[in-house]
UniProtKB/TrEMBL annotation:
Domain DUF58: from-to ranges: 233-404
UniProt superkingdom: Bacteria
The name this protein goes by in its record: DUF58 domain-containing protein
Transmembrane segments: 41-62, 68-90
Keywords of the record: Membrane, Transmembrane, Transmembrane helix
Keyword Transmembrane found: yes
Length: 423
């Protein structure tokens, strides 16, 4: 056989293979819809549904072979039941589903409402269905009646807000299934939405919170040649600003004398809270500590004070009060070596110009730990500690350089700081 003949046969075989591949791809594309429908139907069948179908087919086969009419009737009834259950799940979900939250941010104990609206987008009526909505770890479900074309149905329900938390709500699922639970097919609509349940906070006056009242700042021990707080006079040296020459004293002394100032600083509040689980007697103490941190931070934000807040595990940053409370809502117990002493070391390294430091902790923190924390804080900073002790009466005492305010609940915070200010 000549070479051209072999080449022609090879080309013909290759063309046949290409044609078979194209036909196969075309068949796959044409059957994509039915195959997806079958897959969805198979996923909709529950374990009980498969059991009913298997027993029904087995009874039919056994009844036919053994001549038992009773088995044939039982098998036919079971298979008919399976087919009837299938009819409940067939068809599209022609819905437009909307989930609305009355407010994305609430405070513990406030009323939070959610609404679900389901509209039939088809021109024909649809069968009844079931609507399920995950709310945190729980699930809300309600019956969706049959809807005419273009008709809608709305359900409104309350969301519990008894604890500080971030509650994921949704996505909404419309579910079709038979009354016996043999088949169940659901469709999810939209994305989950987060509901922030912010911690409780209390308003604090500047004096009650111990904030320093100053318009330009507070004087420090550092001396500078230009500021607002006068310190002393000294002899003029080349390079000094002549605007600060004190001419009257210069005339008496017979030489130029210039003013010297104490450097002033803006009030800078630093609040640190321990997240270490071993620093608290119970969960309620931790919740009061988070609320205390939030109350102090919000007061500083309202008065536009310089503010730094941190925990034993991270520094908390935010650009607004709402976002800051969002951050506090996610705070949880931590573990590890971090505590009030490690926070104090971090503050002394990162916030050297702090004017007031407040350490927030629970009942299991000892006086020695507070004394050690106060010893490493910046020297010029006024040191406070708020210790939450469940059931304790409001009290103020001093441990080393730290003024310790003991409170039993959040409502005592304002009165406790006033008491501390007048010691």
């Amino acid at each position: 056989m000549t070479e051209p003949a072999i080449t022609t046969r090879a080309r013909s075989a290759l063309s046949d293979r290409i044609g078979e591949t194209s036909a196969l791809r075309s068949l796959v594309e044409r059957t994509r819809g039915p195959r997806l429908g079958v897959e969805r139907a198979l996923r909709a069948v529950s374990v009980a549904g498969w059991a009913v179908l298997a027993v029904g087919l087995l009874a039919l086969v056994a009844g036919r072979r053994l001549g038992w009419v009773e088995l044939v009737v039982l098998g036919a009834a079971l298979v008919t039941t399976f087919v009837g259950a299938l009819a409940f799940t067939l068809g599209r979900h022609p819905y437009d589903v909307t989930l609305r939250l009355s407010d994305r941010r609430v405070v513990v104990g406030d009323r939070a409402m959610a609404g679900v609206t389901v509209r039939n987008t088809a021109h024909h009526p649809v069968l009844p269905a079931r609507v399920e909505l995950p709310v945190g770890v729980a699930q809300v479900a309600f019956h969706l009646p049959g809807l005419a074309g273009g008709e809608d149905h709305e359900e409104i329900f309350a969301i519990p807000t008894s604890r500080r938390s971030v509650i994921p709500v949704g996505p909404v699922r419309t579910v079709r299934g038979d009354p016996l639970g043999l088949m169940r097919r659901g469709v999810a609509w939209g994305e989950p939405q987060d509901l922030y349940v912010h911690p409780l906070t209390v308003p604090l006056s500047s004096s009650a919170a111990g904030f320093i009242h100053d318009l330009e700042g507070r004087p420090t021990r550092e001396v500078t040649s230009a500021d607002l707080s006068f310190h002393a006079l000294r002899e003029y040296v080349p390079g000094d600003d002549r605007r600060y020459v004190h001419w009257r004293t210069s005339a008496r002394a017979g030489k130029l004398m210039v003013r010297q100032f104490e450097e002033t600083r803006r009030s800078h509040l630093v609040v640190g809270m321990s997240r270490n689980e071993r620093d608290y007697g119970d969960d309620e103490e931790f919740e009061v500590a988070v609320s205390t941190l939030g109350s102090l931070a919000l007061q500083a934000m309202r008065e536009e004070k310089d503010l730094t807040t941190l925990t034993s595990h991270e520094t908390l940053r935010s650009v607004s009060a709402g976002q800051y409370l969002d951050v506090l809502t996610r705070l949880e117990h931590g573990d590890g070596p971090g505590g009030v002493l490690s926070m104090a070391h971090k503050i002394s390294r990162e916030v050297e110009r702090a004017s007031m430091v407040v350490l927030v902790c629970g009942s299991t923190v000892t006086a020695d730990q507070l004394r050690a924390a106060g010893a490493v804080l910046p020297i010029d900073a006024r040191a406070f500690a708020v210790q939450v002790v469940a059931g304790a009466e409001t009290a103020v005492h001093t441990v080393g350089v730290v003024t310790v305010l003991t409170i039993g609940e959040l409502s005592e915070l304002r009165r406790g700081f006033r008491k501390a200010e007048h010691r």
